[in-house]
Amino acid sequence: MTATQGVAHGASLSVRRAGKTFPGGVVALQPTDLDLPAGEILVLLGPSGCGKTTLLRLVAGLAAPDPGGAVLFDGVDVTGTPIERRRVGMVFQSYALFPNMTVAENVGYGLKVRGEPRAAREAEVGRLLAMVGLADLADRPVDRISGGQRQRVALARAIAIRPKVLLLDEPLSALDAALRERLRIELAGLLRRFAITAIHVTHDQAEAMAIGDRIAVMRDGRIIQLGTPEDIYARPVDPFVASFVGTMNRLPGRLVAGSTADEVFFRPEAVTVGPPGAGPLAARVVAAIFFGAHRRLTLDVDGHVVEADIASDRPVRVGDAVSLALDAARLHVFSEPSGRIDGC
Amino acid sequence: MRITTLAAGLLTVLVAAFLVMPAVVSMVAGVSVSYARGVSECLTLDWIVEVWRLYADTIVRSIAIALATVAVTLLIGVPAAYALVRRGGRLARVAEEIVTLPLAVPGLALALALIITYGGVRDLRGSSAFIVIGHVLYTLPFMLRSVMAVLQSIDWRLLDEGAASLGASPWRRFVDVVLPNARPGILAGALTVVTLSIGEFNLTWMLHTPLTKTLPVGLADSYASMRLEIASAYTLVFFLMIVPLLVAMQMLSRIGARREARP
User: Fold this and answer.
1) Which residues of chain A make contact with B159, given a CB cutoff of 8 A?
2) Which residue of A has its CA nearest to B259?
3) Fold of A250-332
């Protein structure tokens, strides 16, 4: 249907021992390795300051890695190539649209710089604007369109140059919550249609789940876990990943006698709530929040907080005594001391 | 409450009147047949015609010098401002301070330094270019500050990175993206420079020769040697030149403020 589909699906991307130390000695990124096959969408997920944006800027060519690090597109070393010759599409957090240009001029700028003839340029811009649903705003100045529309202009502009790799730096974070949720789905759909190698940076785990083929969870300048959204959710490697992605309960206890871990972790869906005495754990309902199809219960188990979901038609009220049963197959234990699990 | 508001209003009007009156009196004098006999007598444009006959060359020269000054400050100031915000850090601040230094030095001292250093070059000393040099020294910091401020307010680095990611070379980024978005600041700087150059007296009085008089120098000359009405008419001409520039500056700064207020 479009030139961006079927032809170039972007390059494969390799990052080799790329680290970044800022002047003053702050290590923003530990030497990191990363391989991305052509066409895959990788999400870098982590709290602010974890090095995800730094890694993105190294791939973009907006920053140079410490000596010894390298970035390769399709096996070709581009470490010394400045961003303007790397052919990467970049969607910035605040979009970086050019206020002196219209929507169409913004989208067509990359093609203009490349000396593409006017007619071909206009055709391509028209097609891209139609694709992101902005065809009738082509001649608007970019400061006369909404935040969500700006975000799509930024995406179309980055795609227009048929980049080898598309890089998105928290592209939804400047939007309000409701719009963000809608655009998350829309963006995931568009990226699939472009079928392009992409790295998407976010601190929002729901966004990461919706958009990524794979997710790299980062903390303290390194990738802690790299896997599919299902992997990360079902088999987190440590308490940090477990708590950062989705809701995770923790209770003191041992899974088997003699194990070194003294805490067990489990998701709300691993909990079965029954009448008192039905399950092995006694609990009291502290809060019950209605979510439509289900009700999220906050429970007090011996002074520990546990969250669990029940069908919303079950007559459970705040203050009720209940019992909990845990699905043994869905309990997690981590051998390393769990320590601090929030923040970078 | 009412009374204090009223009193404050009255005070404001009085102070404003006190400050504005001399200008008004001077302008009225410029179109009075005889200032000594008062306005009631008769109004005339003869004095303005006389001013043009006597001082047309100074008016034209002042405009030419202002235009040359603004051209040079644009040529030096805009790239310099860009370079300074690009580089940043202590070195850039030191450079900015050095460029700003002429503002702190009395114009007469600056002129004297120029004459001591370059006065020996006869062709330069006798030409209007010598005055342009003085004016550039004096007005460059205003251009620099204005452009640096606008560059910082438009987040030039983000725009620059955006254009770079699309394949634009550093030069194209500057021309296509940085310059157009910095235009309000560049225009404001240019208007400031023109206004300052047209009104500059200290430096110019030292640097001029009988053949390179500017408008303010001519004004001083007319105050000293002509009848009051001619000097006043001359002031009126000066006002007519400078007020539109001031209004334009005010409007530009308002546009700039509105642009920043937009989300």
Assistant:
1) 96, 98
2) A143
3) OB fold (Dihydrolipoamide Acetyltransferase, E2P) (2.40.50)
Q: Is A84 on the interface with B (CB under 8 A)?
A: yes
* pLDDT lower than 70: segments of chain A: 1-9, 255-260, 336-344
Six-digit token pair at A233? 């959710």
Q: Which fold has domain A13-242?
A: Rossmann fold (3.40.50)
Kindly provide the ipTM of the predicted complex, given to two decimals: 0.82
pLDDT band at B231 (very low <50, low <70, confident <90, very high): confident
Minimal C-alpha gap between A85 and chain B (Å): 6
Question: Which chain B residue is nearest to residue A160, measuring alpha carbons?
Answer: B166
Q: What integer pLDDT is reported at residue A260 of this predicted model?
A: 66
Q: Do B167 and A161 touch (CB under 8 A)?
A: yes
Among A96, A97, A113, select the one facing B161 at the smallest CB separation: A96
